[in-house]
From TrEMBL:
Residues 77-159 form the GHMP kinase N-terminal domain. The gene is ispE. It comes from Ornithinimicrobium pekingense. InterPro entries: GHMP_kinase_C_dom, GHMP_kinase_C_sf, GHMP_kinase_N_dom, IspE, Ribosomal_Su5_D2-typ_SF, Ribsml_uS5_D2-typ_fold_subgr. Residues 221-288 form the GHMP kinase C-terminal domain. This is 4-diphosphocytidyl-2-C-methyl-D-erythritol kinase. It catalyses: 4-CDP-2-C-methyl-D-erythritol + ATP = 4-CDP-2-C-methyl-D-erythritol 2-phosphate + ADP + H(+). Keywords: ATP-binding, Isoprene biosynthesis, Kinase, Nucleotide-binding, Transferase. The keyword Phosphoprotein does not apply. SUPFAM superfamilies: GHMP Kinase, C-terminal domain, Ribosomal protein S5 domain 2-like. It comes from the Bacteria. Pathway: Isoprenoid biosynthesis; isopentenyl diphosphate biosynthesis via DXP pathway; isopentenyl diphosphate from 1-deoxy-D-xylulose 5-phosphate: step 3/6. Catalyzes the phosphorylation of the position 2 hydroxy group of 4-diphosphocytidyl-2C-methyl-D-erythritol.
Length: 337
């Protein structure tokens, strides 16, 4: 008799997701839950990870790309955490299907560009589609996202947005036009977000300063309506910058080098250590990136525009079941243990 072995079909959903920079980050008081009350204006910029989620026999995560060696490929990967968290929201009768997650990592790691949060947002979107979770609408997806990390809901939206609370309550900012950024990514540098918030508190205590009321500035909101580079440059603010420079003093030299080479403004991105330089046009951005590569501090130089959309499904692949493989019985008879 001929025996047949049948394979299952495989589905894969690929999502493209950008990193972010904070155009404004006002850090208010510490709340009872240990998080700081913030008001931040975030912009998604054109540096992308690609996250592919496919049906599999067991949960796993695999990372490739220039920053892959700095990303954990185990249960601590925030993309895997996101997939398992969403799995718990499935209807009881739904089949439990583990996934394999492939991350092509181009967003600098631990750089203040929310690359991990971006991967989590992308995974939520991909898993919702893969598992066909029709009952999970955008509001519920955002709720799940907020439980995973403060920046995850924003990466579902992208664009430019105000975020409040601990950063998870997102309101879009409408504006026209685009901004041209040059990013400096320090080799071997990496600042931990909790450490930078703690250093911000320490520096304020030392100086006897009270935390400010977390509110977005009118000046920046007006500048963003037109995306006017000079107006935006004048209004950029990051309350974590001094703390990031205190923990990583080499950043001061980087900030100064960019301005000397023609940037309209220089700003540490979020908790750093990536530095964002604002320029007035694509031509200026090219000039600055050439100047920084030739004469600036050692690091990767990346040009990016913003705003860009958040996580988006870009590919759905269905691999049909493998054809039946005919196998002949052994001429030696059945094999037993
Ligand atoms: C600083 C910012 C600016 O957008 O991002 P990064 O620059 O790290 O990307 C965010 O506030 C980071 O957001 P995210 O990276 O999602 O942080 P979470 O995982 O929620 O929190 C990590 C840790 O940061 C500190 N934290 C975070 C957010 C907040 N409003 N107050 C805090 O004190 C807490 O110590 C918390 O345990
Ligand atoms: N998918 C992921 N991508 C990047 N970092 C991850 C991921 N999962 C877990 N991490 C861990 O989260 C830390 C913060 O990463 P990331 O989100 O890139 O930085 P930031 O919080 O500065 O924006 C990393 O040092 C890494 O150990």
């Amino acid at each position: 008799m001929w025996l047949m072995s049948l394979g299952d079909s495989t589905d894969a959903i690929a999502v493209r997701v950008p990193g972010k920079i904070n155009l404004e980050l006002v850090v208010g008081p510490v709340r009872e839950d240990g998080f700081h009350e913030v008001s931040t204006i975030l912009q998604a910029v054109s540096v992308y990870d690609r996250v592919t989620v496919s049906t599999a026999d067991r949960w796993s995560v695999h990372v490739t790309g220039p920053y892959a060696d700095r990303v954990p490929a185990d249960d601590s990967n925030i993309a895997l955490v996101a997939a398992k968290t969403l799995a718990r929201r499935r209807p009881r009768r739904g089949k439990l299907e583990p996934v394999r997650i492939d991350i092509d990592k181009n967003i600098p790691v631990a750089g203040g560009m929310a690359g991990g949060s971006a991967n989590a947002a992308a995974t939520l979107l991909a898993c919702r589609e893969l598992w066909q979770l029709d009952h999970v609408d955008n509001d519920l997806l955002e709720q799940v996202a907020a439980g995973i990390g403060s920046d995850v809901p924003f990466l579902l939206h992208g664009g430019t947005a105000i975020a409040s609370g601990r950063g998870e309550q997102v309101t879009p900012v409408l504006g026209r036009g685009e901004l041209h950024w040059v990013l400096w990514v320090g080799e071997g540098l990496g600042l931990s977000t909790p450490d930078v918030y703690a250093e911000c508190d320490r520096l304020r205590d030392e100086a006897g300063l009270e935390p400010p009321a977390p509110q977005p500035s009118e000046e920046l909101m007006t500048a963003l309506r037109r995306m006017d580079a000079d107006e935006v440059a004048a209004a950029l603010r990051n309350d974590l910058q001094e703390a990031a420079v205190s923990l990583e003093p080499r950043l001061r030299e980087v900030l100064e080098a960019g301005v000397e080479l023609g940037a309209r403004a220089a700003l540490v991105s979020g908790s750093g250590p990536t530095v964002a330089f604002l320029t007035g046009s694509q031509a200026e951005a090219i000039d600055l990136s050439v100047g920084l590569a030739a004469n600036g501090p050692t690091g990767d130089i990346v040009r990016a525009i913003g705003p860009v959309p958040g996580a988006q499904v870009v590919q759905h692949t269905r691999t049909p079941p493998r054809p039946p493989v005919p196998t002949r019985p052994s001429p030696l008879g059945p094999v037993t243990d």
